[in-house]
Design goal:
The chain is an alpha+beta fold. It has a domain at 21-100 and 174-188 and 213-245 and 256-339. It is globular. It is 20% helix and 25% strand. The longest helix is centred in the last third of the chain and has 22 residues, at 309-330.
């Protein structure tokens, strides 16, 4: 039902390509179990894992770090594409300055409209507000509450690979790779579904409509995993990311074991900061078979040019474009070959 509604927003978008399976195209991640798909900052810290799945399952889909400035490009559906990308999770989210829903509205009115596709309901703690501060560091603030905040509601499809997250000031839409044969959907498929869910929620009575809400920030998150290939050790992070430099040969330091990386990049419109790109890389192992891996997370958080839904989704498009270009620019050509870059 909601997927049909979502098609209304994607008439001019590029349709999803058919998956192209190739058992020889390199490492692909498998399932990433999640007890709680977090927000951008939590995503950047986790190592991830897998319940199972081949390291050589590939599907045709496209996607995408010390302060570095990045321009804010317009949305471009012809961005770089990888035949076998290492992405295991994508999340798109909108944050608002005020509550846009209540528990009663979310559960009593919204859920019945999507329950056929999203029959599973779970509750999680609410995520705190997220914002990008510029200029002098801000002093921490404390808030005392007489009651716990309203929960964050998860609405999941039966397989658990599609997830809608709603709390009073935020709505997020996730895709997660939960099966080895799962197709990685394009951004052009996720975006219209998120818009349909937002519009569906705001069309309900007993709450603000689309003109009565103020989007403050948008987030785009891509979580990627690079696994050790069969019979080989995990590559050095410098072999994956070209922004990492190993100590020079002969340096008087112990042998390198692993590298953990966290970087933030300014995103500006002209001279005005409008957000940041966050990049994190962390070593770990896959739960099911203890295969070593690196989890590489890219998150962009942007302020819409105007506090409207249309401008919020334009900011999502820009965020996606930044991630696509950043992922290409910070990864090594040898990894592009492994992931089979196509443009």
């Amino acid at each position: 039902m909601l997927r049909a509604l979502a098609r209304r927003y994607s008439e001019d978008a590029e349709g999803p390509e058919e998956p192209a399976q190739d058992p020889d195209c390199g490492s692909a991640p498998g399932e990433v179990p999640r007890e709680d798909p977090p927000d951008a900052e939590e995503d950047a810290q986790r190592t991830g894992g897998s319940q199972g799945g081949s390291r050589h399952s590939c599907v045709r889909r496209g996607y995408a770090g010390t302060a570095v400035e990045a321009s804010v490009p317009p949305f471009d559906a012809s961005l770089v594409d990888f035949k076998c990308p290492p992405v295991v999770e994508v999340a798109l989210g909108l944050q608002f300055s005020e509550p846009i829903t209540s528990d009663a509205r979310t559960l009593g009115r919204f859920w019945p409209t999507i329950q056929e596709e999203y029959p599973r309901l779970e509750q999680q703690p609410a995520l705190p507000p997220q914002a990008e501060e510029f200029g002098s560091p801000q002093a921490p603030t404390f808030e005392f509450m007489s009651a716990p905040p309203p929960p964050r509601h998860w609405f999941l499809n039966p397989a658990g690979d599609w997830l809608i997250q709603i709390q009073p000031d935020r709505i997020m839409f996730n895709w997660r790779k939960t099966r080895d044969d799962a197709e990685y959907p394009r951004y052009e498929e996720l975006r219209p579904q998120l818009r349909a869910h937002v519009d569906g929620l705001l069309a309900l009575p007993d709450g603000p409509d689309a003109k009565g809400v103020t989007p403050t920030w948008v987030e785009v998150t891509y979580v990627n995993q690079v696994l050790a290939r069969p019979g080989e050790e995990l590559p050095r992070l410098a072999d994956i990311l070209n922004i990492v430099v190993d100590p020079p040969e002969g340096a008087v330091v112990p042998p390198l074991e692993h590298t953990t990386l966290i970087q933030q990049y300014f995103v500006k419109d002209g001279e005005t900061p409008v957000g940041r790109l966050h990049l994190a890389a962390q070593p770990g192992v896959r739960n099911v078979d203890q295969v070593p891996l690196y989890t590489i997370t890219l998150v962009v958080r942007l302020r819409p040019a105007e506090p409207t839904l249309d401008e919020a989704f334009t900011a999502l498009d820009r965020g996606r474009a930044i991630l696509v270009q950043a992922f290409r620019d910070v990864t090594q050509p040898s990894m592009h070959e492994q992931w089979e870059i196509e443009s």
